[in-house]
Amino acid sequence: MRLLLVRHGQTPTNVDYLLDTAVPGPGLTELGERQAAALPAALSGEDIEAIYASTLVRTQLTAAPLAAARGLDVIVRAGIREVFAGDLEMLPGDTEAGHVYMRTVFAWAAGDTELRMPGGESGAEALARYDAVVAEAAGSGAGTVALVSHGAAIRMWTAARAANVDVAFAGAHPLDNTGVVVLEGSPEDGWKALSWAGAVVAPTGESGPAGQAVEEDLP
Known about the structure:
This is Histidine phosphatase family protein. The protein is α/β, with parallel strands linked by helices. About 40% of the residues lie in helices and about 15% in strands.
């Protein structure tokens, strides 16, 4: 299966650089609406047969133009929602709270899945819920599926599950609003990332979260 992980369009709390992860969350800014409207053209070369979105409003609004263009319904699943910030909810992402959030997310991707977000979920719980939606999509028989999800969740899941993406690569490569990670594979055979925001994936091979880019991305 070809799996397209799409980050939602810009939100007001993205602009304010806040850790905003609770359901239902805000809608899109005017720029976010334009980004969503541009998705059908940006993905015109993809034979998308199913579209999923999380339970947060911003992913459903982002998915809507693509779904309308393809004549598909948006399948809403809680499992691909953003990593819940817990006690860090609505704190500034450019403070220590934001650094703790991203360090925790990438520690999960590196294998420390028992670690828990302060007041939130563990890595094992976050990966399990995301895995379940990916498995459902794979079991649908669709050849290409788009999952409209969230920045930290996409980077965490891809670094944990794609054989050719390490934590250093995911940490060093933020995913802009409506950025797309393209993967190929299956839950049984594993996943390989083909592209990340339009660029061919070439992992750095370094260990641990890499550089300030980890701190610059927002949910």
